[in-house]
Structure formats: structure tokens, C-alpha cells
Amino acid sequence: MEQTVVIEKVVAGGRGLGRLASGQVVLVPGSLPGEALTVRITQLYRGYAEAEIVQINETSPERVQPPCPYYGRCGGCDLQHAAYRAQLTIKQTILEESLKRARLSLPGEFSPALASPGSLGYRFRLRMHLDPSGCLGFHQAATNTVVPVERCLLATEPMNRVLYNLSNSDWPKRLSRQIKAIEIIHSPESDEVMLILYPYQGSLINHRLPEQMAASADAVHVHDQRRTAAPAMLLSQRFSLHGYTYRLTWDHLCFFQTNCAQNVQLVKLAVDMLPQHPSSLTVLDLFCGIGNFTVPIALRGATVLGVEHNHQSVHWAEKNSRNCGLSTTRFAAANVERYLHTLIRQKKHFDCILCDPPRQGLGRAASLMANGLAPKKIIAVSCDPATLARDLAIFTLHGYQLTRLIPIDMFPQTHHIESIGLLERN
Fold it and tell me: What is the value of pTM for the model shown?
């Protein structure tokens, strides 16, 4: 069934929203605001429909030819059809509407989306799927079908060289019965590239496999769920912020922002949100990872407690802190919500709390932070506008005001939106 629609806006998830003649909402992938389209309904749900583009009758001036030959088949990107400046506007609008839906007032300082230093070639980590036929690539959108990929425009050139050579070797077919995924990781400082092989559960892997594949990358490592095997290669990045030069080191079991250049800008924003004289500050860094924020905040003179559930990340956070000569940091390997209860029972006080939770956001931890610890400032980093809005609403109920919000484009060409906000207690 074909119908004509005009796209009003792009919503969370990267699809354009229009209305059918009946008034029903329709979501259309690959569309842009203002475009008049002939669409074909592909799925009906209660309250809305999904459709695909049959023809573009009126084209947005922001539409561009996607540079990637896999675009539309590979499910990794969904905004390559939009000029980069339009992508930034789309993301800022989505974040703004998420706040409005949560009945939150926009902050006095709501900055334009911060552009990534590179809109292509920015990813230092890719996870590729390997199907039983030996096809190496990414999943097609909303399916488990693997689209073979020899080159990803979002990845760095060293990673693409490894990917191309691997794809054109006999290794994918040789590995396909034992290995379900291959991760390609580029170390920002050394420019070395590592392959991580993820076996099917119960697969017996030849212990000489990394040695046999040595020509494929600088290092090859078979992922061990028991974590008994030492990593084949360490990853590191150098930073220069506020006159301090330091290095962070980690391994493949740790989370780290895959857009390393944009992460530098994010860290600077977070540090700049602290008071001008941080030397007497006490800061709680929740979901601290390997010390991405902890180390630079402590280098400015603050006393910082980092909390992170991943024991491996805490190991590297402690090591990174020691390597920077810091004596004002300590770390706890613990569930964040449970540890907040402990801090409240101990009547601990912090001038500022910084949090960088996973996609599901803070949830009940938000109330514990705001009501139980009640710092003067909360710096909230988020990778999901919906859960951010939910958590911000909780903070405001407990007497905090959102004074600053900055969308961060950590993932160009995709609908994903990072942001950082500053809340101050009334």
C-alpha cells in the first residue's frame, strides 16, 4: 500500500516522522525533515506505522549521496544521507524534544551539538560478525543476516587495512565454525591493531591459533570468558589538557570511548564544569571506567573517589592513577547503586558527583545521588536522550536545576547522541 507523506522531523532512532492521510504517525528510515515522499507501508503497529521510501517527490537541500557503498544494507549507519551539519541539528533537536517530553525546562545554556573532529574514520574499535558460511561483516538492520564488509568508512585506516586483508584471506571460512565475532581494535598511541576472536560457547580452539594468524594484525587474542589468558596487547592514549600531559592504558576487556578525538573534547568539557579552584574539591566519579575523568580531575588537584563495577577497569584506573603520580584518588570495584547506599550510611560528603552510566542510565541511583548525598553540583554524561531526560527529572524533583547542556556528536553518521549536562542545587 503506497501513500504520500511529508516528513516533519527526525526522531530518536534516526527515522523520519510523518503522518498518513488518516493522521496516523508513520516512521520512515532514510528520510529528512521537509521531504515529500511516496512510501510503502511495511509494518502496522498500535498507534503508528513503519514504511519504506518508494520515491522522493521533494528532496531536502540537506540530502547528500551516502559515501559508503554498503549504506542501506549494513545496519551500522542511519544518517549518511544527511549533510553533517544537518546531522548535528537533528541530534540537538532530538535531545531538546526528549527534555520537553519529560516536562523539563531547557537550560539557560543549551549549546549547539559539538561536532566530532572527524565525521569519518573516527572509530578505534569495531565488532564484526562472522556467520557459518564465512561471511565477515555487520548485521543488516533489524536482522541477523551478515552483510559482508571489506572496508568501513567509520573505522581508522590502520583498522581498514587489517579488515581488507582479513576479508580477502581464507581465515573467515576457516574460523566460521568456531568463531562467531571478530573485534578489531586500534591503539591510539602506538597505532597497532589487535584482533579479538570470540568463540562459540564450547568451541575447542587450537592454542596456536593466535600464532598462526600473526600476519593478520599486530596482535591476535582469543577471548577467554574465564579471563585467565593475558591480553595480547595493551591499548593506550596520550592526553594534553590544561597544561597536563598524561597517558591512559587499558586492555580489550575495558570500556573506552571509541571516538578517541571527541573523547578529548568531552573530558575537557567535564573538567571545565568544575569550580575554578578545584584543589579543595571532593569528587565522586560514578561508572569511572579506567579513569577517563578521574585522572584529569585529580590532576587539577581534586580528591576523587571512582566507582566502577568492572574489576578489570578498576585495575587499570588504579594503575593509570599511580602512573600519573596521583595520591588523591582511590577506587572501588562495586555495583554503583549498592555502593551509593554504603556512602550514604557512612555520611560521606562530596562537592561534586560526575556520572557516566551505560545506556540504561542511572535509574534509582539518581535519587540516591541527589537526595542521599546532595552534592552542590552534578555533572551528568549520557549516551541516551530518553534515559537522560528521565534521570534529569529525578534530579529536579530533589532541588537541582539544569544550568547547562551540550550535545556531543560521539558517533557521526548514526543516530546515537552523547551529551553532558551540569546541574546545580537550588
Answer: 0.94
